[in-house]
Design a protein that fits this description.
There is one protein chain. The protein has one domain. The protein has 5 helices and no strands. Helix 1 runs antiparallel to helix 3, helix 1 packs antiparallel against helix 5 and helix 3 packs antiparallel against helix 4.
Length: 119
């Protein structure tokens, strides 16, 4: 079970990298005013959601405790990311706040995952 948890966690981290990498790749386009929500952003967010839910389920399945407040906050932030990405996915260029907000929310989620400990 530990191997499965680690594989799912690795896929979750790949989702984070895709989402944040997609935002970073758009920095030159942001400066030019032509930024868009590229597929890497959307796919990364959906990957994070799916693997995050699987991880929580697996942790419960092995009898360990989950910090529900932390997971709830991370889920709320991720849902906001997904909603923003879906609303702006087909626009030729997005408002100036969209990609910086996606990047900031992703960074906050990373910080919550790494800094907020249950101890």
């Amino acid at each position: 079970m530990e191997i499965l948890l680690n594989v799912i966690l690795a896929i979750h981290i790949i989702g984070v990298a895709s989402l944040l990498g997609g935002v970073i790749v758009q920095i030159p386009a942001m400066r030019a005013g032509t930024a868009t929500v590229i597929p890497a952003i959307r796919h990364g967010a959906w990957t994070m959601l799916a693997t995050g839910l699987i991880l929580v389920g697996l942790v419960y399945a092995v009898g360990e405790t989950v910090n529900n407040a932390k997971i709830g906050l991370k889920l709320t932030i991720l849902v906001a990311i997904i909603v923003i990405a879906l609303v702006y996915r087909k626009r030729e260029k997005v408002a100036a706040w969209v990609l910086p907000t996606l990047g900031a929310l992703t960074t906050i989620n990373i910080l919550l995952a790494t800094v907020w400990t249950s101890h």
